[in-house]
């Protein structure tokens, strides 16, 4: 009886051991069933394939999938944010003047995004640069006269928003006939069409984002695109709404506004810095 009980116990132990060995072999076989080589994306691949925020100017996409382009956009977006300029003045000027600019651009077949050009050029404030460019669109005297503006000691149509916008629209239209690309039109407006054509001929291509241009022109489209983004998405970049939208066009503007000179000076300094900043 004892011998039978002992044999039964030994049998149970053997069955248990064999079961464990079987499980172990099954586990090993399962691990070996994985591929020997697993393709894991490198950090660089992940960076290139990861989704990015898209930006465009005049319906032409800014290629922010490229690192240098993305860095420049980030730089100018930050420079245009409320954290940097500390005033809503640009939004207020845009609200005042965009309704004047937009229908004129449309009349001449110019993309609406070019309304941001005078915002970058002059902050939508008539003024004269050291080089002699003047007005909202910063026309040089010769170019202004060639597009029908009167520029003399007693009268300067560059300071007239409607007249200067008509002249700018005609000029932009002519530039598009030359370059057939709105990004290049913006660059040519800044540097001059002859200078840009020379660079395209020398470098053998007409991709603005790959052309080696002077610092101001190389950053120009980025400034326009970032200004567009900040004006169209004020909350995203720290500009708090006060009642209605900062760009509400049906809000009557007060006839007399008290402007803090310190705030105004900061805004002008920020615009000047934005024009000079380059990577």
TrEMBL record:
Pfam families: SLT. InterPro entries: Lysozyme-like_dom_sf, Transglycosylase_SLT_dom_1. It comes from the Bacteria. Coiled coil: none annotated. Residues 109-207 form the Transglycosylase SLT domain. Belongs to the transglycosylase Slt family. This is Transglycosylase-like protein with SLT domain. It comes from Arcticibacter pallidicorallinus.
């Amino acid at each position: 009886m004892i011998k039978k009980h002992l044999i039964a116990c030994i049998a149970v132990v053997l069955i248990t051991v064999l079961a464990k060995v079987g499980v172990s072999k099954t586990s090993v076989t399962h691990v070996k069933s994985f591929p020997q080589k697993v393709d894991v994306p490198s950090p660089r691949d992940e960076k290139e394939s990861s989704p990015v925020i898209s930006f465009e100017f005049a319906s032409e996409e800014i290629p922010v999938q490229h690192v240098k382009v993305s860095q420049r956009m980030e730089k100018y977006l930050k420079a245009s944010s409320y954290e940097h300029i500390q005033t809503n003045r640009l939004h207020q000027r845009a609200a005042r003047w965009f309704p004047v600019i937009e229908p004129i651009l449309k009349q001449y077949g110019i993309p609406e995004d070019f309304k941001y050009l005078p915002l970058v050029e002059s902050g939508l404030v008539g003024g004269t640069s050291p080089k002699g460019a003047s007005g909202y669109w910063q026309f040089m005297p010769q170019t202004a006269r060639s597009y029908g503006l009167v520029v003399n000691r007693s009268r300067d149509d560059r300071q007239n928003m409607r007249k200067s916008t008509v002249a700018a629209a005609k000029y932009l239209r002519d530039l598009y006939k030359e370059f057939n690309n709105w990004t290049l039109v913006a660059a040519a407006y800044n540097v001059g069409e002859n200078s840009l054509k020379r660079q395209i001929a020398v470098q053998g291509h007409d991709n603005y984002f790959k052309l080696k241009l002077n610092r101001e022109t190389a950053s120009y489209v980025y400034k326009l695109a970032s200004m567009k983004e900040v004006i169209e998405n004020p909350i995203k970049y720290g500009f708090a709404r006060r009642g209605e939208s900062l760009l509400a066009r049906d809000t009557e503007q007060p006839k007399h506004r008290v402007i803090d000179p310190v705030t105004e000076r900061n805004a002008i300094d920020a615009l000047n810095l934005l024009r000079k900043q380059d990577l």
